[in-house]
TrEMBL record:
Has an important function as a repair enzyme for proteins that have been inactivated by oxidation. Catalyzes the reversible oxidation-reduction of methionine sulfoxide in proteins to methionine. The keyword Disulfide bond does not apply. Its EC number is 1.8.4.11. Residues 6-154 form the Peptide methionine sulphoxide reductase MsrA domain. Keywords: Oxidoreductase. Belongs to the MsrA Met sulfoxide reductase family. This is Peptide methionine sulfoxide reductase MsrA. It comes from Flavobacterium macacae.
Length: 163
């Protein structure tokens, strides 16, 4: 029997994050959207202080939050503030949207492991923000790189597993 949970994270442009996570073992669904901002009903053109983020629905019997975080830190540079690739601004920050104390503990432990690895040019600057609400992005942004396989992304696997 499936044990479905959700995780919320941001690590730059949501197109590339979704494309890589959607095929991970145990991941049942992904949806791109906006997290952590100041307005209701954000849009691509109006999402002040929101991060471009990802809602991941996963089966906890097949993968764990820690394993999702391990992959998260392999596919984006968590040592840059408000930037991934050519994208700049708070929309592109590295952030985890924490739902409970266990997620906070897991996030802090994984960040410590990633920092200790020395594989990134600086320390992890990922923010741990309380999860409040996930706002799905417009339909044209969902599964974007499936629709446009040669579209823009700055995400790719950079390192082997940290765990």
């Amino acid at each position: 029997m499936e044990n479905l949970k959700k995780a919320y994270l941001a690590g730059g442009c949501f197109w590339g994050m979704e494309e890589l996570f959607r095929v991970r073992p145990g991941v049942r669904d992904t949806e791109v959207g906006y997290l952590g901002g100041t307005n209701e009903n954000p849009t691509y053109r109006n999402h002040p202080q929101h991060a471009e983020g990802l809602e991941i629905t996963y089966d906890a019997n097949e993968t764990s939050y820690r394993e999702l975080l391990d992959y998260f830190y392999r596919i984006h540079d968590p040592s840059t503030v408000d930037r991934q690739g050519n994208d700049r601004g708070s929309s592109y920050r590295s952030a985890l949207f924490i739902q409970d104390e266990q997620e906070r503990e897991d996030a802090q432990e994984v960040i410590s492991i990633v920092d200790g690895s020395g594989l990134w040019p600086g320390k992890v600057v990922t923010t741990l923000e309380p999860f409040t609400k996930f706002w799905p992005a417009e339909d044209n942004h969902q599964d974007y790189l499936v629709k446009f396989p040669h579209g823009y992304t700055c995400h790719f696997e950079r390192h082997g597993t940290f765990l």
